[in-house]
Amino acid sequence: MHFVYTHGFDWWISIEIQNKSMFHFIPSAKVCHSTILVPSINQNRIAVRAFCTIKSDSEIALTHTNQEGKMKMVDIGSKSPSIRIAEAEARVHLGPVAFELVKQNKIKKGDVLSLANFAGIMAAKRTPDLIPLCHNVQIDHVNLNLTLNSTTQEVIIKSHVKACDKTGVEMEALTSVSIAALTVYDMCKAVSKDITIKSVRLLLKSGGKNDYTRTC
Hints:
The protein is an alpha+beta fold and 216 residues long. The chain is 21% helix and 37% strand. The strands form three sheets. It has a five-stranded antiparallel sheet with strand order 7-8-6-9-10, with helices on one face. The protein has a three-stranded antiparallel sheet with strand order 1-2-3, with no helix packed on it. Strands 4-5 form a two-stranded antiparallel ribbon.
């Protein structure tokens, strides 16, 4: 039997009995950190191995505070550089009037998508100046992609940030899409007061000890 953790504390369990595999889904299963052996059932011996990568309560701690609760910068001096990649996304709901003007490139201030693209690239490089305890990462590459969704009347902003360094670049990716979204807002605010920035989120990060990919 194998437990595989999925979103929402649900588990898929695979049981092999006499070379026959069965699959069962258990919602809201309790997190388990130990190995369990289950005695025979109907004369079929089942070996059960349960595992989970979720940290226990005693292992979870904020990295930017010390034992006295005061803020600190994480010491990464002993870490080795590796290829770090992060991707993030933001969405800006424009509404019908602003969306059509952006689509036709008729906003009086200028080309909204191009300027937001530049702003996002600049923001990624200035992240340590905006977020106090963020390390000054040597960024190798930043790429933004801004697309228009006519169905939802949104600008969808995605960023891809890459570096070879000792710490990740997820904050650079998130800052990039956030500032790009704010730039879209600033360019369009004269024609609509209903613009909404939403769904700023990390899509993936890799290269560190805790890689992550959003699945929903």
